[in-house]
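Can't paste images in this forum, so I'm doing it all in text. The chain is below; anyone willing to post the predicted structure tokens underneath?
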Amino acid sequence: MMDWTDRHCRYFHRLMTLHTLLYTEMVVADAILHGDRDKLLGFNSAEHPLALQVGGSDPAKLAEVARISQIHGFDEINLNVGCPSDRVQSGTFGACLMREPKLVGECVRAMKGACEIPVTVKCRIGVDDQEAEVALNDLAFQVWEAGCDRLWVHARKAWLDGLSPKENRDIPPLDYQRVYRLKSQNMNQFIGINGGIETLIQSRNHLSQVDGAMMGRAAYHTPAILRHADRVMFDDLRTPVSYFDVVAGMIEYAERHLSTGGRLNQITRHMVGLFHGKPGARRWRQVLSTESVKHGAGPEVIQQAFSSVQLDQDVQAA
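Text version of the structure:
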């Protein structure tokens, strides 16, 4: 979710769900150690619970990042061993680390020794020609031996040789059964599942086999489903937040962001899918996409876009 789940996206999502664990976009360990930490690690306290997702393969560096992440107030630190992007491969981390389970274990052990917050791992079931039964078991064994608190498994292989990062999100077939088997053989370990999950009902159904379900692109492109996440996933029976309150919350947030020199489109680019499938959604997208990039654009653009959406009392909570 690099370039997607930044702090503005997460604040927007948190307005719709209180209990869901939110993840940062993946941040490279070297960037945290040598870059602008306030920019890379800054977040609004309303975003809790929040996990910092990091990429790296040097145990010493990752240990220092884990220490820093706890100081900054994150609720969890997650080591990404599943991302297939070109940037990740060139840095020898992400999905290519599926080939080096012992090193991943060393990274987790170092991170655990440097912080008290949960250290978790997100991986694939294998890469390229690896046998998924062997590769996933090897990776899981090493990270659990090192004290990994939770293992999240994207139920696809990553093909680093021959497929683009975009193709790796769709072309390798999903194998949920492989993740279920891992759980059935390790009942005392937390195992969550990821990949191709498009609805909350699908997420809930996975919980009969594993301990958690993770949504990425579906939650980003159709964020309104998060309004029902607390009820469906956490049995919180409170009335979902209304669309009106979500929009009002983001207008207030935009006012604060603009007062510090920010730009409106940094926020609104994450909001274009809010009314997916609703009357007026197309106009909502058009106004946000064209008006928010203009010089001097202010929160009134969000209100202008919202005026095009047709909602009645029943649809507010649908």
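The CA atoms of residues 157 and 253 lie 39 Å apart. The chain has two domains: 7-223, 243-316.
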